[in-house]
Automatic annotation (TrEMBL):
This protein's UniProt keywords: Cell membrane, Membrane, Transmembrane, Transmembrane helix
Membrane topology, record value: Multi-pass membrane protein
Keyword Cell membrane tagged: yes
Any matching Pfam family: SURF1
Location in or out of the cell: Cell membrane
Protein name: SURF1-like protein
InterPro entries the record matches: Surf1/Shy1
The UniProt record lists the keyword Hydrolase: no
Residues that span the membrane, as ranges: 209-230
Family stated for the protein in its record: Belongs to the SURF1 family.
Annotated organism of origin: Curtobacterium citri
Length: 259
């Protein structure tokens, strides 16, 4: 059979099969790396407090790696731009969202100040901080929430959605952080509100079995490409052997007839 395999036609086909196997193996390696990368825990850097502008910039998205990052930001709360949300976890019936203008970048930032079980008290807490004085807020930074998460019940909302605040805030110059800060107890106490229950994000390791399955699948394809070449060569060899046997039988039959 290997005499057949050494023919130029089958050598060329073998090279093609090896190229395909290499491509499939590369894809399998890529899928395996993805499954391992997705299984790694997120970096344990969120508990080191950093300046907000060292973590993100106005207009930049908030990836999962910085969700819950402890930050410090200094600025001024805008009077008249307090928003009250309801139906949220973390404490209270109503949560107060303030419009903070970052003193360093000049960009707008939603800040979850605190909570109250009374709407008027929640509003008063936001107004208490919007007195024109510069304040320093410490808390955790999170990605923006979608307006689709809002609970539209009698005009009430539940999502910290900068995409909606741009239409409701009176003082806004188009520069905004695509995320929000949940303030700690210091800011909540200054506003006379309850502190939002917030804690360090969990770092669960979830191995991506789907990518692992794809990796195994590509390896099978790579092996199949070589096996297919072997099968073609074997079929060609068996076909030629069958033709030889038939030719030999024809010659033997002809000799017998002559006798």
């Amino acid at each position: 059979m290997w005499a057949v395999a050494r023919r130029p036609r089958w050598i060329a086909l073998l090279l093609l099969a090896l190229v395909l196997a290499g491509v499939f193996a590369g894809l399998g390696k890529w899928q395996l790396e993805r499954s391992i990368a997705n299984g790694k825990p997120l970096p344990e850097t969120t508990e080191t407090r950093r300046d907000l502008d060292a973590v993100t910039q106005p207009g930049a998205g908030a990836p999962e790696t910085i969700a819950g990052q402890k930050v410090t930001v200094t600025g001024t709360f805008v009077a008249g731009d307090t928003t009250i949300l309801t139906g949220r976890s973390g404490g209270g019936t109503y949560q107060t969202i303030g419009h903070l203008v970052d003193a360093q970048s000049g960009a707008s930032l939603p800040v979850v100040i605190g909570w109250s079980d009374r709407r008027d008290a929640a509003t008063a807490g936001g107004d208490r901080l919007a007195d024109g004085d510069e304040v320093t807020v410490e808390g955790r930074y999170y990605p923006a929430e979608s307006p689709d998460q809002d609970a539209y019940t009698k005009g009430e909302f539940s999502a910290v959605a900068p995409a909606r605040f741009v239409n409701t805030w009176k003082a806004f110059d188009d520069r905004m952080y695509i995320g929000y800060v949940v303030a700690d107890g210091t800011t909540a106490q200054a506003a006379g509100l309850g502190t939002i229950a917030d804690r360090a994000p969990t770092r669960e390791i979830q191995f991506d079995w789907l990518n692992l399955f794809y990796a195994i699948e590509w390896v099978v394809f790579a092996g199949f490409a070589v096996f297919l070449w072997y099968r073609f060569v074997k079929d060609a060899f068996e076909r030629e052997e069958e033709e030889r046997r038939e030719a030999a039988l024809s010659v033997d039959g002809a000799l017998v007839d002559r006798r």
